[in-house]
Amino acid sequence: MKHLSWDTTRREKIHDCKIFDVYEVDRTSYDGSRGTFIQIEAPDWVTVIPMTQDALGNQCFMMVRQYRHGNQAVTTEFPAGTVEPGEPPLQAALRELLEETGCRPATITKIGAVSPNPAFLTNTVTYYVAEGMEMIQAQELDEHEIIDVELVPVNEVLHSMGTGTYSNGIMVAAMAFYQRWRGLVADEES
Amino acid sequence: MKHLSWDTTRREKIHDCKIFDVYEVDRTSYDGSRGTFIQIEAPDWVTVIPMTQDALGNQCFMMVRQYRHGNQAVTTEFPAGTVEPGEPPLQAALRELLEETGCRPATITKIGAVSPNPAFLTNTVTYYVAEGMEMIQAQELDEHEIIDVELVPVNEVLHSMGTGTYSNGIMVAAMAFYQRWRGLVADEES
């Protein structure tokens, strides 16, 4: 796929935003075109899908509700956060889950990883499923985090995603990986 | 959900990156906390899932391969792009599909919409399915776009997402909406 690739000829930080850095990059393509592109260097992220059951025995997710400063709205989504420098992603997943919900899972399984936005983000988001949730402590939130935890039936999330507070694209991608891992998706027939 | 919400007290553009603007925003929470947050104001995006069949009658997607300047890799994903100022998203979807593949669909259907990254992006991405693809012209690419078009069986995308060139999170979210719209996902049993 060499004819699609570009070589970097300059890379310069043009803004430091604390949660990420903005770079300007010059690149040349295989056919000799030159262009300047924006790149946002962000730390890797993790998203954890905590499986549990409600009092009626319905298969549920433990989800978090919080205000999101990008779209200026409250979202209902999966516990998630940033991987610290040198921290293994699995460790970050367990840490974020504990901080946001107070729970430790019996097992945690990686179910997928993607570039959340390869057009300009450098980073990777890794998705996990957590099973056997046990509450072991109170929430331990970062400054400026205000998070409600609630159990939502899996089927409600499937039917609601893309509407109301189920508006986070990272959560919808998590659903695609969850459904595949859980064996809920049928192949297309020829 | 008032206790989760924040009020904006200052909003200042701190960088203009051509494809988006970076803002710094001061907000106060319901309980009186104050914080400064980063917001990236980007135009809305559209993603189109073009359905077609290959010579063997397999249900396929018409996908695009291109170099992505964020993750510095070639991705295989759905035709997608930016909504122009004042342009209806449906129009943008048809335009991007035509530019990247040379095709016009018989029907196009909205299947979902999300905030691609509500933590810091202001915008919305709307997902469409296009059926009855007819090639009516050559590709009409923007400067610096080098795009290969290829047919990929739906089942291959389902099984490959998150690996190799199937690494775009926006594409994986599109798969979740596609599978729901197409009736391929079973409910969880209680």
Structure write-up:
The structure is a homodimer of 190-residue chains. Chain A has 190 residues and is of the alpha+beta class. Chain A has 2 domains: 2-41, no CATH class; 45-114 and 123-182, Nucleoside Triphosphate Pyrophosphohydrolase (Alpha-Beta Complex), CATH 3.90.79. The first copy, chain A, is 18% helix and 42% strand. Chain A has 3 helices and 12 strands, in the order E-E-E-E-E-E-E-H-E-E-E-E-E-H-H. Chain A has helices spanning 89-101, 154-160, 169-182, and strands at 6-16, 21-29, 34-41, 45-53, 59-68, 73-77, 80-82, 103-104, 107-114, 125-131, 134-135, 148-153. In chain A, the strands form 3 sheets. In chain A, strands 4, 5, 6, 7, 9, 10 and 12 form a 7-stranded mixed sheet that branches. In chain A, strands 1-2-3 form a 3-stranded antiparallel sheet, with no helix packed on it. In chain A, strand 2 (21-29) and strand 3 form a beta hairpin. Chain A is globular. Chain A starts with 5 loop residues before the first strand and ends in an 8-residue tail after the last helix. The model of chain A has no long low-confidence stretch (mean pLDDT 94). The interface between A and B is large, with 84 and 84 residues.
Note the topology.
2 copies of one chain form a homodimer.
Chain A: E1 6-16, E2 21-29, E3 34-41, E4 45-53, E5 59-68, E6 73-77, E7 80-82, H1 89-101, E8 103-104, E9 107-114, E10 125-131, E11 134-135, E12 148-153, H2 154-160, H3 169-182
Parallel strand pairs in A: 4-10
Antiparallel strand pairs in A: 1-2, 2-3, 4-5, 4-7, 5-6, 5-12, 8-11, 9-10
